[in-house]
Amino acid sequence: MESIDLHCDALFKLMTGKVPNLHGDGTGGLDVTYERLGECGSRLQVFAVFIPPRLDDRGLYPLLESIDLFYEKVLSCPGIVFVRSREELQKCRAEGAIGAMLSLEGVSALQANPVVLLRLLHTLGVRAVGLTWNGANWAADGIMEARGGGLTASGSQFVRQCRSLGILLDASHLSERAFWDVAALLDTPFMASHSNARTICSHPRNLSDEQIKALILKRGLIGVTFVPWFLEASGNATVGHVLRHIDYICSLGGEHAIALGSDFDGIDEHVPGLSHPGQLYNLRNELLKRFTEEQTRGFMSQNAWSFFERNLPS
Ligand SMILES: [Zn+2]
């Protein structure tokens, strides 16, 4: 089995200092560990740099600390390959290695000089960017910002710069208006790394049918997420609910747009039987009861693989 996961917050747990490194069986509190990535045949794990709003007054420092931890604690694991290009991605499959990609979840910390800082972060290997977390910042409004604004002028410029550097856009936390602004600006595919279908579970973090269709039309990617309350309003979600969202996105024509965006280490509660990468087998087994082997392979890894192979710079 091969798997690809578009979103985890392991770097944030490393930054809090509660866990010393990426190793172990999870007893230290990490969902995503090096060993578990090996168990689920991970070919690519996207590591998000998430800085909670309460640390915003510390400027760039927490963001840089997170990236340092990625270099020190993730890339130091044997058999982990830094994925910044198509060739590095291909190397992971050729060598049976685990790819690791750096992504930003919110750009608040770049406010002082977005153009220069984005260029530097690109040099450090960042290849995906979500403009906001839930709130608003200088670039755009997040989905929980009541006024529901779109991209600012600086935000639009920033999206164009991402496009020219070959950094992929992630729309998961964006306000609806900002989502459509990004869609209008980009002639290239983008993704929603960890969001589900709002018609199935009416949470603002989930995508409307129109958003799902737009991502499909643009050959983008939707990372179905295991956040219990994005799967089922009561929060009592099962692996069956994950399948329900996948089923629904397929019904909109999204069979080739579906990927996984676990949000491991970003959630306190887990779907039973799906609480860490080592348990992805349970999802795969359920998928195989309903979908063909090829479709299942698509959801677990191949759709994301093709997306990154098409869209990462060489
Ligand atoms: Zn998130």
From TrEMBL:
GO biological process, one term: proteolysis
Classification via SUPFAM superfamilies: Metallo-dependent hydrolases
Family annotation (Pfam families): Peptidase_M19
GO MF: metallodipeptidase activity
Superkingdom field: Bacteria
InterPro entries in the cross-refs: Metal_Hydrolase, Pept_M19
CDD domains cross-referenced by the UniProt entry: rDP_like
Protein name: Membrane dipeptidase
Organism of this sequence: Paenibacillus oryzae
